[in-house]
Every structure is written in C-alpha cells, then in structure tokens.
Amino acid sequence: MTPLYHDLSGETVVVFGGGPVGARKAKGFDEAARVVVVSPEFDERLLSLAEDGESDDETGDDGNEAPAVELVRAAPNADDVAEWIDRLAPALAVAATDDGAVNAAVESAALDMGLLINRTDVSGGRDPGSVVVPATVEDDPVTVALSTGGTSPALAKALRERIEAEIAGAGAMAALSGEIREELKSEGIPPEKRREAVRRVVRSRGVWKGLQKGRSNGRQEADTVIEEVLDR
Ligand SMILES: C[C@@]1(CC(=O)O)c2cc3[nH]c(cc4nc(cc5[nH]c(cc(n2)[C@H]1CCC(=O)O)[C@@](C)(CC(=O)O)[C@@H]5CCC(=O)O)C(CC(=O)O)=C4CCC(=O)O)c(CCC(=O)O)c3CC(=O)O
Ligand SMILES: NC(=O)C1=CN([C@@H]2O[C@H](COP(=O)(O)OP(=O)(O)OC[C@H]3O[C@@H](n4cnc5c(N)ncnc54)[C@H](O)[C@@H]3O)[C@@H](O)[C@H]2O)C=CC1
Hints:
Layout: E1 12-16, H1 20-29, E2 34-39, H2 44-59, E3 69-73, H3 81-88, E4 92-95, H4 100-112, E5 116-119, E6 135-139, E7 142-146, H5 153-166, H6 170-186, H7 191-203, H8 205-213, H9 215-230
Parallel strand pairs: 1-2, 1-4, 2-3, 4-5
Antiparallel strand pairs: 6-7
Helix pairs in contact: 6-7, 7-9, 8-9
The structure holds ligand SHN and 1,4-dihydronicotinamide adenine dinucleotide.
Pfam family, one: NAD_binding_7
Keywords: NAD, Oxidoreductase, Porphyrin biosynthesis
GO molecular function: ferrochelatase activity; precorrin-2 dehydrogenase activity
C-alpha cells in the first residue's frame, strides 16, 4: 500500500449503501467533494447531513456553495451499478452495502472505468486499484492518515486516538515554521543555515510551549532559536 494525499475538490464520490458505514465514509469526504449516496434507506446521520447542505445553499451566506451530501433513494442490483457509476462519473466509488454481490459489482465496474474503489466489506490485502480509507487526525494544515494495510481497523482507530494528543498544536507550528521558512528564503539566508534554523524551530520545546500561549509567544521563542543558529 502506498499512501498518497488526494485532492478531491470538484470531484464526485459515490457511496453505495446508506447504513452507518456509508454514512461515516460520506462524512469523511463531504468537505472536499460532492458526495452522492445511493441506497434504499438512509442512516439518521445522512439525513441530517443532506439537510445541512440544503440550508447552506438557501442562505448562501459566504457565496461558496457548500458541497452537500445528495441522497438518491434506489437499490441498484449488481447488473445496474455500472450504469449508475457511468452516469454519476465519480473519481471514487465506495462499496458500503450489506450485499456482497452488489459491492463486488461496484468494485469491478469502477476498476473497468479506471476509478478509485473503496471496498468497505473486505479486510486484509487489497486488489490492485482498491484503496482503504485511513483513520485521520487533522490540525489544519497538518493531516495524519493511518492505515494498518486493511488488516485491523480497530487498531487504526486506537492509534489515531493516541496521535490526536501527540500532534496537538501542530497546525500552529506548521503555520509559524512555514512563515519563517519563507522569510529566511527572502532574506537570502544561505540554504544550510536556513534549513538548520527551521529544523531547530520545529523541534524546540520552547517554541511548542510558546505557541500554546499564543502565536506571538511562539514567534518570540522561534526568533531566539533563529538568532542562535544565525549567530546574530
Ligand atoms: C479495510 C477497511 C476498508 C475501508 O473501509 O476503507 C475496513 C474494513 C472493515 N472494517 C471493519 C470493522 C471496523 N471498522 C472500524 C473503524 C474504521 N474502519 C476504517 C477503515 C477500514 N475499515 C479500512 C482499513 C483501514 C486500515 O488500513 O486500517 C477507519 C480507519 C476509517 C473509516 O472508516 O472512516 C475507521 C476508524 C476511524 C477512526 O475512528 O479514526 C471499527 C472500529 C469501531 O467501530 O470502533 C470496526 C470494528 C472493529 C473491527 O472489526 O476491527 C470491518 C468488519 C465488518 C464486520 O465485522 O462485518 C471491515 C471489513 C472486514 O473486515 O471484512
Ligand atoms: N469499513 C468499515 O469500517 C466497516 C465495514 N463494515 C462492512 O460494511 C457493510 C455495511 O455496514 P453497515 O453500514 O453497518 O451495514 P447496514 O446493513 O446497516 O447498511 C447497509 C446499507 O446498504 C443499503 N443497501 C442494501 N442493498 C443496497 C443496494 N443494492 N444498493 C444500495 N444500497 C443498498 C441498505 O439499505 C443499508 O442502508 C457491512 O456489510 C460490513 O461488511 C462494517 C463495519 C465497519
């Protein structure tokens, strides 16, 4: 398995199956992509996600059309799914029904069309072209994605919970060190010194602690580290 971060903005994700698993996957993708869930019945969570999307569209407060989760009430059989996928033209198809034959048909249709496919009903090794949904921790712009190669989802979840504590504050550190990196570049600091400074900043306990108190405290601590490295 090779981990990659995928930009799904502007793409469609189709989820077959509207149970708790289909709902969790839809929720995971709805911020980035247009999500269409095809199922004869829908989990409560999906019904409220779809409603949220509608009310955002109505108010249109920020001018951005919030990608809503669209629900399509249907129960395609194994022979029909290829046509559904063809019509919806997704980048990724998620097979999350409780019908193994339908899930298998979603997989083979998606593979035939060269799309990404996530089979939620199989663990262990993947067929070529098949992807897993990792456990994810986010502190924007930092994202940690964790997979056990499809072997033990419960372990992926447990490790994710540990990492959540471990990366607290990483978003602020990314913002600060990214800014410092750009500044040192534009000041024409030689590459070796610049890299050393940035490496020291992201490892400095003082800077991490400072950032907990606020951005300017973090910046002050970072400036001390940078001065040391640059001998100024
Ligand atoms: C292969 C994979 C395919 C895919 O879905 O992409 C898959 C497959 C299956 N999961 C099953 C069960 C559970 N899944 C979870 C939880 C998560 N499952 C997720 C991903 C994946 N699950 C992919 C591999 C990821 C990897 O590489 O590690 C996470 C990480 C991401 C997400 O789904 O959002 C999310 C945690 C998110 C978080 O909290 O951070 C729990 C835990 C719980 O519910 O507490 C259980 C119960 C305990 C257990 O069984 O382990 C079953 C058995 C169904 C049955 O028994 O019938 C199958 C199918 C099978 O095993 O055949
Ligand atoms: N990947 C994961 O994290 C997990 C995966 N699973 C697997 O995922 C499957 C789904 O799990 P749940 O959501 O808990 O099951 P569920 O049985 O609650 O939901 C299945 C959904 O699929 C719908 N459905 C049935 N036939 C359909 C068709 N032809 N087309 C479209 N939708 C159809 C049903 O109406 C229902 O809404 C399970 O069968 C299991 O194998 C289960 C737990 C976790």
